[in-house]
Write a structure and sequence with these properties.
By secondary structure, the protein is an alpha/beta fold. The chain folds into 2 domains: about 120 residues, Aspartate Aminotransferase, domain 1, CATH 3.90.1150.10; about 240 residues, Aspartate Aminotransferase, domain 2. It has 14 helices and 17 strands. Helix 2 runs antiparallel to helix 10, helix 11 packs parallel to helix 13 and helix 12 crosses helix 13. The chain is globular. The structure holds pyridoxal-5'-phosphate (PLP). Pyridoxal-5'-phosphate binds next to helix 4. Homodimer.
């Protein structure tokens, strides 16, 4: 018989009751070091007192009023995001897919309003992940995810990630935008080179098309800067954010330059929940933590510490690990083809460490941004044991 909870996920048989910082406890009392953060979402860890208090206080006052009225918490959060980013204006929604969906609408609207409705194709990349709605599935372009869901939404074209020749070849009179993740998260924690991001910006300027960044996974401090594109010294025209911005409370956002945002007038786009007082109280609390002096510097420091430890881990386990990739606290251990990342994930669980598998046979690490160097060391110790569990027996014999 089908479970009451629809079986859309392959869930591990673990249920958590309580969390504190980077640690989670199951209902049966086991403790895990959480280097997955609920897929890069519990950005400031579990049970962060400031976030808990902000949510509790707002919940007691008023949670939801709808966008029929002004929402001071949303006005404040938007103003702070504008102040700390390239953007002039922000739209709030509830998830990453929804932010991307709105962003795709925004780039099409921009060209339509500028007299070019034929410019409605978004160039996307192989290995991308943009969400599970019909439009974002088409933007994702993964045959496995599209299968069975009818004709993919038109208006998307895919080229190899990192290949500037292919991008320029794909640009024509129908191109509206280039949509790219600064680091492909689900696709295998693959960073775009900073030069590739700069070249995309230049091509967009050259051809009058929009640069749309999907920073759903890479944003809100995950890379060691507030937004990952800041490492490249470029600015997008429009950007999506979600996951980490609510610290675990569902919140998504479209950040846009005025030239794009100006066309999203009343009646063009909307959301019932989007940017409600409770979600924005959570967003403001996360921002308080991430923007506190020294916070991002510490993320960068602990990330570099973890990176060095992972390089060392790779050296100790040449039969298991092919390489290490990623940036900031979004890191991937690329495994040898004979070692399956799902099995490696289970081996880590057996050692008390939570990670997330990603594409390209990568074991993804996305710990809460608040981890200490000691917690990074603890994760490395647990990974060392997990990698030993994954070592093929012939390699174990050779190492003796
Ligand atoms: C997770 C993710 C999404 C989808 O976000 P949802 O909140 O699951 O809809 C989109 N883009 C990227 C880069 C993501 O990592």
């Amino acid at each position: 018989m089908i479970p009451a909870l629809m079986p859309t996920y392959n869930r591990a048989d673990l249920a958590f009751e309580r969390g504190e910082g980077a640690w989670l406890w199951t209902v049966d009392g086991r403790r895990f070091l959480d280097f997955g953060s609920g897929i890069a979402t519990a950005s400031i860890g579990h049970g962060h007192p400031h976030l808990v208090q902000a949510i509790a206080e707002q919940a007691a006052k008023v949670m939801h009023t709808s966008n029929l009225y002004r929402i001071p918490q949303a006005e404040r959060l938007a103003a702070r995001l504008v102040e700390t980013s390239f953007a002039d204006s922000v739209f709030f929604c509830n998830s990453g897919a929804e932010a991307n969906e709105g962003m795709i609408k925004a780039v099409r609207k921009y060209h339509a309003e500028n007299g070019h409705p034929e410019r409605n194709v978004t160039i996307c990349f192989e290995g991308a992940f943009h969400g599970r709605t019909l439009a974002t599935l088409a933007a994702t372009g993964n045959e496995k995810y599209l299968a069975g869901f009818g004709p993919p939404m038109p208006g998307f074209r895919h080229v190899p990630f990192g290949n500037m020749n292919a991008v320029r070849d794909a640009i024509d009179g129908t191109t509206a935008a280039i949509l790219v993740e600064p680091i492909q998260g689900e696709g295998g924690v693959r960073p775009a080179s900073l030069d590739f991001l700069r070249a995309l910006r230049a091509a967009c300027d050259e051809f009058g098309i929009l640069l749309a960044l999907d920073e759903v996974q890479t944003g809100m401090g995950r890379s060691g800067k507030l937004w990952a594109h800041q490492w490249a010294g470029i600015e997008p025209d429009v950007m999506s954010s979600a996951k980490g911005i609510g610290g675990g409370f569902p919140l998504g956002a479209i950040l846009a330059k005025e030239k794009v945002a100006q066309y999203l007038k009343p009646g063009t786009h909307g959301s019932t929940y989007g940017g409600n007082p409770l979600a924005c109280a959570a967003g403001n609390a996360v921002l308080d933590v991430v923007l506190a002096p020294g916070f991002l510097g510490q993320v960068d420091r602990v990330a570099r510490h973890l990176w060095r430890g992972l390089l060392d881990l790779a050296q100790r386990h040449p039969a298991v690990i092919e390489g290490v990739q990623g940036a900031g606290l979004l890191l991937g251990i690329r495994l040898k083809p004979e070692v399956n990342n799902g099995e490696a994930q289970n081996a880590a669980v057996a050692e008390g460490l939570l990670t997330v598998a990603a594409g390209m046979n990568v074991l993804r690490l996305a710990p809460p941004l608040i981890i200490s160097e000691a917690e990074a060391d603890e994760a490395l110790r647990l990974l060392d044991r997990a990698m030993l569990r994954c070592t093929p027996s012939h390699a174990k014999d050779a190492a003796k």
